[in-house]
## 1
Amino acid sequence: MANLFYSLIDQTREFLHVAETPVPSVGEYLKKELSQHAARWTEDEGTRKLKLAILNSFFNLECCVSGTHSMDLVALAPFGEYTVLPGLDCTFPGGYQGLPDHIVASLPQDVMTFNKPVKTVHWNGSFQEAVSPGETFPVLVECEDGTCFPAHHVVLTVPLGFLKERLDTFFEPPLPTEKAEAIRKVGFGTNNKIFLEFAEPFWEPGCQHIQVVWEDASPLQDAAPAMRDAWFRKLIGFLVLPSFPSAHVLCGFIAGLESEFMETLSDAEVLQALTHVLRRATGNPQLPAPRAVLRSCWHSAPYTRGSYSYVAVGSTGDDIDLLAQPLPVGGEKPQLALGWDDVKAELVWDVGWCAWLWLLCVASLPSAWQPQSRLPSTGVPAAWTPATKLESQGHLVPRSTGRPRFQARMRAHLPRSNQRPGLGTESCCRLSGFGVISLTSSAEPPPDTVCWGSHTSDVLLHHARSSAVRLEGG
């Protein structure tokens, strides 16, 4: 079933440059093709239903990969513009927080300001500050506590979900109509992780992934049970994390409206529901409940309002490219640049050198950050070569190559505008980021200025060895 499903996923690339697609969405195309395949199956009814149930689990998995509630929401034509990022999966000692901590340690003191929620970004104006009498700035960042920061340039990497919610009030003057419309059209979904900690593992040694398949589910059926009674059925399964003597942890993944509903529940309710799932999966009604649960809540978080962007039905890759263009449009001195996981923020500084920042959630930093001594197409030395520093100082720990490893199936939309002579993807500095506003109040950017974020909803999905579990009913 996996070969069938992913062969159809590969076929979606055939529509990348066609004038008209047979159906608007990836989901509709997949279901149409699967219906034709299912009509040719010769097995008994029970086997046919099981095949459809397994295929439904792949649909749920693909929702996690694409960051959407349903593949019916993902546009078919631009789906082929996505690529799977290469490289090893890496784990940071002490958690992902070690990355921003390391970056901050390399910066001069007092250049970072935290806990300053921004109310409005004023741009295309003329602002002054007391410490620089006579000098004017085109941008002013107004914070909720009344503090204001004037700047020549602002890089804004708050997530698309936040911009969708605050679009009418966050910018003054409002963004140009075409940019605002692109923000509204591009999709943004929720993908969450749920960690369950056990005193003792119930899974077999060497098990790396537990996949859950509901036998009565089918991608060809549109009817869905009540959310409260069945939200956990959207869970694709659990990744078995490396064990420690005192802790054994499973990490589950869930996307879409079910993921958002999960956020409204208490920890006790989530733990109870997933304990029920695991007891049914193992056939052991006495299976000890997890002793702790930890989960992300990206949709509830006021400054994210979701996890990942995707090219929705009604939008195209042109919308991504449009959002990457700095403001004002056609201006000699860019003032405002937007960027998040699918958008490359492109800045051209006053002194004439260019810095390309790819604000991507990447699961493999060594391949995403190419060590380089100078920024592309410029004469300005790069202040920081992340891959070199992190590897040499032991802040990256590649997973062992001596065992079957999980692949990080992260798709990244590569804007067509990036394909320019002399500037390939390898020469871009790709940063995992959100929720960061970078201000530059001088003609030349400070040599040690770095933007980053902490959006770490990376999804490890494709497994080399797994346990598949079939479940019936609710």
Note: Residues 136 and 364 are 41 Å apart (CA to CA).
## 2
Amino acid sequence: MPHGKLVACDVGDDFAITAGVSNWGGYAVACALYILNCCPIPRQIPPEGSWVPQTLRAGFLGLGTPNSH
């Protein structure tokens, strides 16, 4: 993590969840766990990053601008 030494933490972890307000980070984790364990929607979502090649093939360059070529 960039500037990780500046993040105050007493306990190590595998994933850093940063939030402006600690409760908001906790709410985000709780909601994500609920969705992963109770809702069928995540099973329909493509794996992370799998949309990138299709998006590039479609001509998307980024920053909200379609490829003009």
Note: Helices lie at 22-38, 51-57.
